[in-house]
Write a structure and sequence with these properties.
This protein has 8 helices and 11 strands. It is of the alpha/beta class. The protein has one domain. A 6-stranded mixed β-sheet has the order 1-3-2-4-5-6, sandwiched between helices. Strands 7-11-10 form a 3-stranded mixed β-sheet, with helices on one face. Helix 4 crosses helix 5. It starts with 11 loop residues before the first helix and ends with a helix. The relative contact order is 0.13.
Length: 368
């Protein structure tokens, strides 16, 4: 005898579940950024927010990087100092401003930011990199008044750290200022309020490098760098891929810059654009053949010199944004989580170019 026919299973509930799951996954992919942003919102008015305790820059613990015998440089030390203001490494959540010593923020600084962005200057000067109560990554995604106040609050720490460097460690040594992303915005105000008004101090400045930072072209805090043999000048730029003109415009539309009253406001007018390959603030094209070298130094010790990848990109300033071609190497493309892709990238397209540029400006400053 044959087997009795098996009853057909009703597949519709399973099909319906899979369809609903597909819709949910698609919605998450579309709105993932908004969901992450919402999770990082402190949802506390800054006026009632209690920030973390302030750092004491007389203590080594207030510095990410502080040279050994910082107050008494030895004969083997470089002749210059580098005041380095790091980029955002604190995501947010309950706090508008990150506490000193946040573990994840420290890890990102040590493994990603310092090797890629302080690294080009290690062989030129002693690095002084202050910890500061940085405004959260969320505050850089919002134009709200609370976000602006969090970023202004962070400046107080950076200014205090610079004064501590100047009075305790700087002496009469030549120096370079480097700021990256949020750190560049804070360093821009530092130049305007602490350095430019002081002729004796500004004469010791070889250059200021404000990396991935929007600075108004009409009233920069220092004279823009126009040639490699020039000292006492400012090199500032923000970059975008050549293939994404919409991104370049969004960057400028959302850029906040300092006003003379110390408040952050939307950019009005053109932005300053320095081309690191050419070593000048110019709209001229820098072809790939002039590119001295990119580096992906993530995971290296920040004092190690990484292998350079030369002739990787061309670059040109267009409309106040440095438009950069796609790198040839896959190690120079953004990767990681959604949050990682909203920080300064874990590589430096102009590592070797910046090292050579800073060396030339330091030589021009110290030339008899």
């Amino acid at each position: 005898m044959g087997q009795p026919p098996r009853p057909r299973r009703n597949l519709w509930p399973a099909i319906g579940f899979l369809a609903a799951l597909a819709v949910l996954l698609a919605a998450y992919a579309v709105f993932r950024g908004d969901l992450i942003r919402y999770s990082l919102d402190p949802r506390t008015p800054f006026q009632t927010y209690r920030p973390p305790p302030a750092p004491d820059y007389a203590r080594p613990s207030a510095w990410y990087v502080l040279p050994a015998h910082a107050g008494t440089p030895g004969p083997a030390d470089p002749a210059a100092d580098v005041f380095f203001v790091g980029p955002t490494t604190f995501d947010g959540g309950h706090d508008w401003n990150g506490p000193i010593g946040d573990r994840e923020a420290e890890r990102i600084f040590r493994q990603v930011m310092a090797p890629n962005y302080a690294g080009p200057f290690v062989r030129l000067g002693r690095i002084f990199a202050p910890r500061y109560r940085q405004a959260s990554l969320y505050s850089l995604m919002s134009l709200s008044e609370d976000s602006r106040q969090a970023r202004a609050f962070a400046y107080g720490d950076v200014a205090a750290a610079f004064r501590a460097w100047r009075t305790r460690y700087g002496g009469q040594r030549p120096f370079i200022v480097v700021g990256v992303e949020q750190g560049g915005t804070l360093a821009s105000r530092l130049l305007a309020e602490e350095i430019a008004p002081d002729p004796a101090l500004s004469r010791r400045l070889a250059a200021a490098y404000l990396i991935e930072t929007v600075v108004p072209a009409e009233r920069p805090p220092l004279a823009p760098c126009q040639a490699r043999g020039q000292a006492h000048c400012l090199a500032a730029w923000v970059s975008a891929p050549q293939a994404d003109p919409a991104l370049a415009q969004r960057i400028l539309d959302r850029a906040l810059v300092w006003r003379p009253n110390g408040e952050l406001d939307n950019l009005q007018g053109p932005a300053l654009c320095f081309n690191p390959i050419l070593g000048a603030t110019t709209d001229a094209l820098a072809p790939e053949r002039l590119h001295q070298g990119a580096a992906n130094a993530t995971g290296l010790d920040w004092t190690d010199r990484p292998a350079f990848l030369a002739r990787q990109v061309s670059a040109r300033c267009e409309g106040g944004v440095l438009r950069v071609s796609d790198p040839r190497s896959g190690s120079l493309t953004a990767s990681g989580s959604w949050l990682d892709q909203h920080r300064a990238p874990g590589f430096n397209l102009f590592y070797a170019d910046l090292e050579a540029d800073a060396r030339a400006r330091l030589a021009a400053l110290t030339r008899p």
